[in-house]
């Protein structure tokens, strides 16, 4: 049995691309393009606010907005959307505010469960089980 032959990652003697410098960002202008003008009104979002798309992405939507609308066919939190799109929370709030004002998404607070169950409900369940 012969060992596998190694293949060069960069054929034809091409040098590898230089490593990024510490502190250098990939696309410094990208967040400004996504976020738009500074100082605009923003909706109040929490990391656990659930977002659901109410329409398909229009042809005029930005790529980030179209991707966000395709992801939100089921309820997703703002934190999940931020992770899936690799965008910071501040840029997500700007995108979501634009989509919310255009009525393309709906936002709702997560369902909070009560810490203690209602006593009358527990008694009704207990009596129902005893009757079985």
UniProtKB/TrEMBL annotation:
Name by which UniProt lists this protein: DUF742 domain-containing protein
Species for this entry: Streptomyces shaanxiensis
Chain coiled-coil ranges: none
Pro residues composition bias: residue spans: 13-22
Region listing for Disordered, in residue ranges: 1-28
Domain of life: Bacteria
InterPro entries for the chain: DUF742
A Pfam family hit: DUF742
């Amino acid at each position: 049995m012969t060992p596998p032959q190694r293949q060069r990652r960069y054929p034809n003697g091409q040098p590898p691309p230089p490593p990024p410098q510490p502190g250098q960002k990939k696309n410094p202008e990208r967040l400004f393009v996504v976020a738009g003008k500074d100082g605009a009104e923003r909706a109040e979002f929490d990391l656990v606010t659930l977002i659901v798309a109410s329409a398909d992405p229009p042809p005029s939507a930005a790529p980030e907005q179209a991707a966000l609308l395709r992801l939100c066919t089921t309820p997703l939190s703002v934190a999940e959307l931020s992770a899936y799109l690799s965008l910071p929370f501040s840029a997500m709030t700007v995108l979501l505010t634009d989509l919310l004002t255009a009525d393309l998404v709906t936002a709702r607070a997560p369902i909070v469960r009560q810490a203690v169950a209602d006593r009358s409900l527990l008694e009704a369940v207990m009596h129902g089980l005893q009757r079985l």
